[in-house]
């Protein structure tokens, strides 16, 4: 809904940049449901590719991930919620939490960028 609203209000040829928390792979249920995770926006995070697909589905073009940084969950927190077996599986799974910054452009009408106050009317 937010991405669609950004698309609606941007002028043709405009662009936006957004930073958000996304997932790579499925977090263990215990981690998703942990109260500490809600404060960090992790429990409601969606898959990275799904996030990028939503931006594309809204109509944006030239979508690029400008920053992509791993967010490491401290071991002491993981140990509170996962058994040794699940902790080992989680660490070797490649699953993780990412902080990404995405840039995208709204296509210009008629293939031209907006050049002044009257060209996009």
Walk me through this protein's architecture:
The model has no long low-confidence stretch (mean pLDDT 85). 12% of the residues are buried. The chain has helices spanning 2-9, 29-33, 35-39, 48-57, 75-81, 84-92, and strands spanning 15-24, 46-47, 61-71, 96-105. With 121 residues, it is of the alpha+beta class. Strands 2-1-4-3 form a four-stranded mixed beta sheet, with helices on one face. The two termini are 25 Å apart. The protein has one domain (2-108): 3-Layer(aba) Sandwich (Rossmann fold), CATH 3.40.50.
Question: What about the largest sheet?
Answer: 4 strands, mixed
Annotation field: number of helices: 6
Name of the CATH homologous superfamily: Vaccinia Virus protein VP39
In whole angstroms, the N-to-C terminal distance is: 25 Å
CATH structural class: Alpha Beta
Coarse shape: elongated
What fold name stands as the CATH topology?
A: Rossmann fold
The percentage helix is 25-40%
CATH architecture: 3-Layer(aba) Sandwich
Number of structurally distinct domains: 1
Low-confidence stretches: none
């Amino acid at each position: 809904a937010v991405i669609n609203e950004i698309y609606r209000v941007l002028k043709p040829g405009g662009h936006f940049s957004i930073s958000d928390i996304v997932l790579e792979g499925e977090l263990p249920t215990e981690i998703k449901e942990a109260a500490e995770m809600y404060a960090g926006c992790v429990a409601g995070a969606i898959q990275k590719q799904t996030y990028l697909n939503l931006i594309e589905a809204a109509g944006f073009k030239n979508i690029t991930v400008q920053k992509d940084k791993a967010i490491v969950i401290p071991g002491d927190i993981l140990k509170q919620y996962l058994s040794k077996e699940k902790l080992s599986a989680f660490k070797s799974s490649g699953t993780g939490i990412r902080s990404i910054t995405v840039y995208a452009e709204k296509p210009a009408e008629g293939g031209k960028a907006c050049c002044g106050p009257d060209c996009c009317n």
